[in-house]
Write a structure and sequence with these properties.
This protein has ten helices and five strands. The protein is an alpha+beta fold and 257 residues long. The two termini are 22 Å apart.
């Protein structure tokens, strides 16, 4: 949403392109405002009304003066860049992701509400706080080290011995991951970072599965969680960096490879 909304706002994509891209994640997308006041201000359906479509969201964003977007992936203990809107924070933390629409003071949070249905709730965020975007070069360098560190962590924690076939699990996760389409002009380096982030996430998912045989002691399980936590942070930062680079390239009309 963050990348495609920016592309659309700057004339690099049509509304149908945005909708087609979002179909990768769900067959149907609904849009509502978080409260009745926001609904009236943005000419969107309220929380108890029949939802509108993504086209309605794009039109509302343009009317509100949006000129770009920013991705946040908040977790408990790390809400950097998240506007201090009372109702937004719990929704963003629950989803673990939010698109901020710069210039419009809006935030959009996705939530699955039914099989193959994703609802986007629009919040009035207030002025966006300043936030440093992670640098892509640093994220790429960090992910290379994270891949090695994650693999070492699997060995050190003896996950492979407790669950034979863990490498096949990782390969299977990578094979079945969602690969969304991207706008023309998407920087190649950002795409590489997305790939690397997916690889680390697949390793983390395999390492973080509860041992079905109960072979791991409580201290070992705690050590495993502590070892994997920084790698999960690295994945989030890398994805934010890749999205930020894509937004810069698409809004400046520069194809950065």
């Amino acid at each position: 949403m963050t990348v495609w909304a920016s592309a659309w706002l700057h004339g690099s994509a049509a509304p149908d392109d945005v909708i087609d891209a979002l179909h990768t994640w769900a067959q149907r997308h609904e849009v509502t405002a978080a409260d009745d006041d926001t609904a009236r201000q943005l000419e969107l359906p309220g929380p108890h009304d029949v939802p509108t479509s993504v086209v309605g969201l794009l039109a509302a964003a343009r009317r509100a003066g949006a000129h770009g977007s920013r991705l946040l992936l908040p977790v408990s203990g790390d809400v950097r860049g998240l506007p201090a809107a009372e109702d937004l924070t719990p929704a963003a933390l629950h989803a673990g992701e939010v698109t901020l629409l710069a210039g419009a003071d809006l935030a959009v949070v996705p939530e699955p509400v039914a099989d193959c249905v994703l609802r986007w709730t629009v919040f009035r965020s207030g002025p966006l706080p300043p936030a440093e975007e992670p640098l892509l070069a640093e994220a790429e360098h960090g992910l290379r080290g994270a891949v090695r560190q994650a693999a070492t962590t699997l060995v050190d924690l003896d996950v492979a011995r407790h669950r034979p076939g863990v490498r096949d699990e990782i390969a299977g996760r990578l094979e079945t991951r969602i690969r969304p389409p991207w706008p023309a002009g998407m920087p190649g380096r950002a795409l590489r970072v997305f790939e690397q982030a997916d690889e680390v996430e697949a390793i983390l998912a395999a390492a973080d599965i509860d041992d079905p045989g109960g072979a791991l002691s409580a201290p070992t399980a705690a050590a495993r969680s502590a070892a994997l936590r920084p790698l999960a942070t690295m994945v989030r930062e890398a994805r934010r960096a890749a999205v930020a680079e894509a937004v810069r390239a698409l809004t400046q009309g520069v194809d950065r490879h």
